[in-house]
Amino acid sequence: MRNIKAIAFKEFIHILRDRRTLMLIVIMPIMQLMIYGYGINTDVKHLSTYVYDQDRTYLSRRLVDAFTQSQYFTVKVNANSIRQCYTALDKGMAKAVLVIPPNFAGDLLKKKGAQLQMIIDGTDNTPASVALNSSQAIVNAFMQDEHLIPVQVLPIDFRPRLWYNPDLKSTYFMLPGLVGLVLQFLVPMITASAIVREKERGNIEQLLVTPIKPYELILGKILPYIAIGVIIAASIITVMHVLFAVPIHGSVVTLFVMTLIFLIVCLGIGLWASTVADNQQQASQIVMFFAMPSILLSGFIFPREAMPLWVHHIGYFIPMTYFLIIVRGIILKGLGFFDLIGQVWPLLLMAVLVLVFSIRRFSKRMT
Amino acid sequence: MPDIAISADKLTRKFGKFTAVDEISFAIPYGAIFGFLGANGAGKSTTIRMLCGILAPTSGGGQVGGFDVETQPEQIKTVIGYVSQRFSLYSDLNVVENLNFYGRIYGLEGAALLGRIKEVLELTGLDPFQRRLAGDLSGGMKQKLAVANAILHRPKIIFLDEPTAGLDPLSRRAIWELLYQLAEGGTSLFVTTHYMEEAERCNNIAFISQGKILKIGRPSDLKEALQGQILEVTCRPLMKASHFFSSLEGVAGVTVYGTTLNLNVTDRQAVEERVRAAADKEGIEIAVIKSIPASLEDVFSDLSQGIKRGNFNPPAAEQERGNRA
User: Fold this and answer.
1) In this predicted model, what pLDDT tens digit does every residue of B261-295 receive, in sequence order?
2) Is B65 touching A (CB cutoff 8 A)?
3) Superfamily for A47-145?
4) So where are chain B's domains?
5) Residues facing B28 on adjacent strands
6) Best CA proximity match to A62, nearest among A125, A147, A151
7) Residues of chain A found within 8 Å of residue B159, distances taken between Cβ atoms
8) Which end of chain B is more exposed for a tag (fewer CB within 10 A), N or C?
9) In angstroms, what CA-CA distances link A242 with A97, A237, A239, B259, B293?
10) What is d(CA B14, CA B58) in angstroms, rounded to the nearest whole number?
């Protein structure tokens, strides 16, 4: 115990003196929060729209208002010709074009059936599909509001509702997951390089002839990074809650325990990388090699449901896959420990396996 | 406490088919400085690693501080100090932080630790540099810190792997003065070195080559054994002479010293005649031939040339003889 404390204390001095690691620890979470909180916003809103209103009636103006009020579309230009609209689409100045033909209102009032055209820039599939769906909804609502269709009793009264993230804010989705992302990158990286550094600089040679035991050395070296990991996770969650107003529906204690388990997996990966690598550069390359697929295949950004089946299955071997379901479940859905048991046990299993494997490897390498 | 600090009995270590250390035996009493000499790769570090309890011997055994190297490596670690060849303390920790850390690892705490740190700082003269980062110390001071660190827990046995390699003469002397002080206090020191004048300072020395101890004894005894066997020849041109004399019968080895050659010979009288004859024939000018007392360097070159002859004939020498026959 005394030895573990001595090593942990010395490790903290290393961390405080090593500008590079310190910068990484402080800057990376902040940078990621900025990127995913402010930068990457998949909420499609205020699509720049050109309107070519050839009708210019009360009704046509009401329709354009309906589009604007939805917030999905922002009318940038009232065009004078269809050509102008096409050019705007080509140049990317317009993402959508609304074409209202002459006699739009007249046809509607005569119940002749009016035509309305919307052209959407389909280059980027996400905003395009949002535009497509919302334009449909806007027009339907418009017809109801203006009493253009008779009020009727539908055979199915279909009322879809969005739970957990009713406004479909991407920060709700991204920021809880960010805890996983940052830990997955940072913790193995700093742990591995801290251990490899002793090997690289020959410090291990001196430690070997002391009465210290391998497990004491490992624990002493790991503890400071557990502390750092917890602090990082807590800061991200605090910023997420305070600055980005993401509500935390579940128990903070459960969240803490789960984060700790995930942290142990990350430490284990770092420890393992340190037994494979001969220098710090190799260690960080190995960590990157594992972190990259974790981000892409765990469902952090891209939904795993959309992946081909075999890629989907690979996701089951990635610790972050389980952790993401757990953090999002706790934060957004207010799930408790027992609701998440299906994710908790694989994560626990991984933690135990990785740690046992890497500690055994480490002890072997020490002698 | 037994009188013997370190002993090896047919200590052997093999790596696959390669035998790094081959049945070496010795005994070192407390308070003695034992010099372990040998070329790089001769098996010095492997021997130290086995004696420090971090490498298990393949066969044979040894005792360090009364503990068995094979069965009690952990106990050995508590009673020894170790100064590695390469500076291996933390360069981003300052002098006191390094000592603090290792002191705690060795079980020192609180006032006892602080007091001991103060002692070793005074002993090594590192007092004024307490807060300096180890990485910013000069080479000599780094080694002093390494020694200070090795003696923190008052070990009675210290292993030093080339503690003075790459240091300037003044720093080397300072380190050796430190070692003498420790030996006087009853500590046993196991030192590997390349420097012959450092070997002279040891109570006992052993020459190791290809894993075997070739010779072991007190420096004076080893030199004594070569008494009357060293011929100093002052001659010109030196390298040509060295070349021809080395192939003469009865010459075990030739070492060049500035403007003279030292010949290790078996029969002084006969060789002197042969040398003069060869010089006449090859046009080598001889100024003086005299017999001189042997130095450790002579002992070392006698041994290493002995190995060459014993184990294989250098192709060049072989050809030489063929040409002349």
Assistant:
1) 888 887 888 888 888 888 888 888 888 888 888 88
2) no
3) abc type-2 transporter like domain (3.40.1710.10)
4) 4-217, 223-324
5) B6
6) A147
7) 209
8) C
9) 38, 9, 5, 84, 87
10) 6
Residue of A nearest to B108 (CA): A2
Domain B223-324 is found in CATH 3.30.70.100: yes
Across chain A, mean pLDDT equals 89
Q: Which residues have C-beta within 8 Å of that of residue A9, sequence separation ≥ 6?
A: B101
Asked if the Cβ–Cβ distance from A202 to B104 is below 8 Å, we say: no
Ordered strands of the B188-193 beta sheet: B80-83, B157-161, B188-193, B33-37, B204-209, B212-217
Write the single-letter amino acid at B15.
F
* Segment 109-138 of chain B within 8 Å of chain A by CB: 109
CB contact under 8 A, B107 and A2: yes
User: Which of A13, A203, A367 lies closest to B88 in CB terms?
Assistant: A203
Looking at the partner chain, which of A5, A203, A209 has a beta carbon nearest the beta carbon of B90? Answer: A203
* Most B CBs within 10 Å, among A209, A210, A215, to test the B interface: A209
Which chain A residue's Cα is nearest to B97?
A: A10
At B1, the pLDDT band (50, 70, 90 cuts) reads very low
Instruction: Select from B147, B182, B187 the least CA-distant residue to B164.
Output: B147
CA distances from B29 to B65, B135, B155 (A): 10, 35, 14
- Strands A47-53 and A96-100: what pairing? parallel
Per-residue 3-state assignment (H helix, E strand, C coil) for chain A: CHHHHHHHHHHHHHHHHCHHHHHHHHHHHHHHHHHHHHHCCCCCCCEEEEEEECCCCHHHHHHHHHHHHCCCEEEEEECCCHHHHHHHHHHCCCCEEEEECCCHHHHHHCCCCCCCEEEECCCCHHHHHHHHHHHHHHHHHHHHHCCCCCCCCCCCCCCCCCCCCCCCCHHHHHHHHHHHHHHHHHHHHHHHHHHHHHHHCCHHHHHHCCCCCHHHHHHHHHHHHHHHHHHHHHHHHHHHHHCCCCCCCCCHHHHHHHHHHHHHHHHHHHHHHHHHCCCHHHHHHHHHHHHHHHHHHCCCCCCHHHCCHHHHHHHHHCHHHHHHHHHHHHHHHCCCCHHHHHHHHHHHHHHHHHHHHHHHHHHHHHC
Candidates A1, A4, A10: best to mutate against B (most CBs of B within 10 A) is A10
d(CA A72, CA A135): 9
Contacts of A206 in chain B (CB under 8 A): 82, 84, 88-89, 102, 149
The answer to whether A10 contacts B91, with C-beta atoms less than 8 Å apart, is no
Give tens-digit pLDDT for A72-89.
899 998 999 999 999 999
Written as six digits, the tokens of A127 are 């905003």
A14, closest residue in chain B (CA to CA)? B92
- Partners of residue A69 on adjacent β-strands: none
Three-state DSSP at B127 gives helix
Mean pLDDT confidence for A257-277: 92
Chain A: closest CA distance from residue B135 (Å)? 11
Whether A218 contacts B114, CB under 8 Å: no
Quick check: B69 contacting A, CB < 8 Å? no
Please answer whether residues B88 and B149 qualify as being in contact, where contact means their C-beta atoms are separated by less than 8 angstroms: no
Contact criterion met (CB < 8 Å) for A202 and B54:
no
Is A41 in the B-facing interface, judged by CB distances under 8 Å?
A: no
Q: Which CATH class is domain B4-217?
A: alpha beta
Complex ipTM more than 0.85, yes or no: no
pLDDT band at A254 (very low <50, low <70, confident <90, very high): very high
User: CATH 3.40.1710.10 occupies which residues in chain A?
Assistant: 47-145
CA separation for the pair A236, A30 (Å, rounded) = 8
Q: Check if B309 contacts A (Cβ < 8 Å).
A: no
